[in-house]
Amino acid sequence: MHESNNRDIESHVLSSIKNVKSFSYNEIKEATNNFNQSNMLGRGGFGTVYKGSLKDGTPFAAKVLSTESKQGLKEFLTEIQTIANVRHENLVKLIGCCIQGRNRILVYEYLENNSLDQALQGFKIGKVKLNWGVRSLICAGTARGLAYLHEELEPHIVHRDIKASNILLDKNFIPKIGDFGLAKLFPAYATHISTRVVGTTGYLAPEYAVHGQLTKRADIYSFGVLLLEVISGRRISSFQFSSTDTFLVQWAWQIYEEDRLIDLVDPNLDGYPEEEVLRYIKVALFCTQAAAARRPSMPDVVEMLSKPMKLHDMELTPPHVVQDSINLSRGCGLSNSSNTKSNSLCPPTISASIMYSEVVPR
């Protein structure tokens, strides 16, 4: 009975999407040379990604879910429904899928430079050139993709898992947001959605991690963390100082309070425009404030990143990082820093004009 219901759901989903081709398992198997190890692009909790080629020579990336995958049928179908009919320069394009027996495979466009996470690692060992021009391109493009999901689609989409490994890069380092297995459709009339907490530690907004209250501002918090990773060159998953674990967001706030923001910049990054880089860091701090209402919308973020702005950082309030289930706190967020520039962590929503103003050329 359960399998019959699954087949009904699958049929319903596949009949409701227009731009996705249905592949047979054998087609993908042949196109990836029998899922050859030499074609493997990456592996994760969900399964494995392989490079393949369509009959016309077009390369693709096949995300093959393992039978033990954390991503079940519901998440698999959510990913198809969410991204199938959406087209944007900064979103990964879904070409097709395979639902055959116990096999679950998503076929995406192939992106030559893999993930941002791998690019940041490659830069450290000299394999990838990530100068400031490339980094700013990645940040701004990701912001535009997220703004499109949040504001231009109806219903809006909250991604719920924005992180470096889910930002893929094409041959020109144009960023594309991928992995929509945890995405939620967000009706325009909804103020928030109460839901189970999923995502990645360190990227989770406090109000979502603590209360399960999901809004678009949760994605904005995650994007702020991502900005800090790109600017600093540090991976949030391995961010440590001495014997004490310190999250990147906490460290960024600490050096902001000590008025030495330039120390956050990747020491391997040469020849960057200091004023612009400092603006990007402050945008990240606006995005990662503990109180969701204090964070800018993604269109505001795009605006702040795209041109010279005077950011009113005297309006900034501290971040909060939920490290694990033991440390969950009450309220909209508690700062680990006692020396803050504001005593209020839960102020009312602020307008864009309070956060920034355009610089008018003389």
Automatic annotation (TrEMBL):
It is a single-pass membrane protein. One of its GO terms (molecular function) is ATP binding. It comes from Ananas comosus (Pineapple). GO terms for cellular component: membrane. Residues 35-315 form the Protein kinase domain. InterPro entries: CR_Ser/Thr_kinase (IPR052059), Kinase-like_dom_sf (IPR011009), Prot_kinase_dom (IPR000719), Protein_kinase_ATP_BS (IPR017441), Ser/Thr_kinase_AS (IPR008271). Its main location: membrane. It is found in: Membrane. This is Putative LRR receptor-like serine/threonine-protein kinase. Belongs to the protein kinase superfamily. SUPFAM superfamilies: Protein kinase-like (PK-like). ATP binds at K63. SMART domains: S_TKc. Keywords: ATP-binding, Glycoprotein, Kinase, Membrane, Nucleotide-binding, Phosphoprotein, Receptor, Repeat, Serine/threonine-protein kinase, Signal, Transferase, Transmembrane, Transmembrane helix.
